[in-house]
Hints:
With 358 residues, the chain is an alpha+beta fold. The chain has ten helices and seven strands.
Amino acid sequence: MTTDARPPGTPQLPPPAPESEPCEAPAPTPPPAPEAPASRLRSALDLMDPGPVLPNTPIPPRSSTPPPPEIPPLPVAPIPPLPVAPPKPLLPPEPLSDEPGPLRPVPARRPGRVAAAAVCVVLGAGLLGGAAAGTWLDADSDGPAARSNYTAARDLWHSVPVDTLFPRTIRGTGAGPGGADREWTRIGVAPDGDCADALDPLLLKVLEPVGCARMVRATYTDATATSVTTVGLVFTQAEPAAMIALANRFANEKLGDRPDLMPRTYPVKGGVAAAFGDKQRASWTVRVLTDAPVVVTAVSGFADGRAMTTPQSAEQATADGASGPVAEAGLGHDAKGIADNVERGLRKKAAASPEPAP
């Protein structure tokens, strides 16, 4: 039993609280500041700057004297940040749109590369289109229609009237020198025959790969009767491939410009072409057709029988700036114009001719 030794009248202390688990002791509360007279407080406020009032700081109670108004903190100018260049985006931002677009931004295209790409596309398309067109042409050249036209054209020398192959009058609009109109009149038709008498030996040898089935010829004179021209059609025994090969040889080797490959004339007795012989040949043309088994020839000269020592092919005599008696007299235009008209008539008739019965 414990005896309380405190003197009587002393208040009894409460029993100690039971022990509990240790915990963090609360922060001690600062003791309130002692009150000061109002006069001393005002003079202190006048002499010193209290500084900014910290938020959430308890203010001790004052006496009945109202507390002084809060002094706002002094404005502090913000320190501007150092200028830093923004990082450059690797790709331009993609504009927002509701329409579907690429999942990733597409970089800007350079005009030079775009033009080069366009040119490559165009060239690639052109090469592909040319290859396809060549394939179609090759396929058509051996098709039934092409073979039918070849067969029909091969027999035209005896299946159509002579006036169809060699019209009595040929009009050439703009076919003369300087684009002048020309007109030629037929004065004689040679009997059909082989090529041995109608072609020089060297030209006959060049035409050997296609063979000569038959040849027909006719002689024309111009409206003034100062020039004469013999036009001929050599009907060959060749198929399209052989005619194409011969045409390529003429083009590659320029055989059409060789004077030793001129066709022969057909002089007509008793007329303006009576003296039209080998020595009077002044201008000529030889054309190998590829859509018909035919070689078209034409040779022209003066009607007065003068000999020519420097003949010119029709291509040379009709070229811009051509000079000399052959070109100035229009003999190249005569050979070219008559050959053009006879060739067009032959193509038209071959296309319109029905396929012969087997």
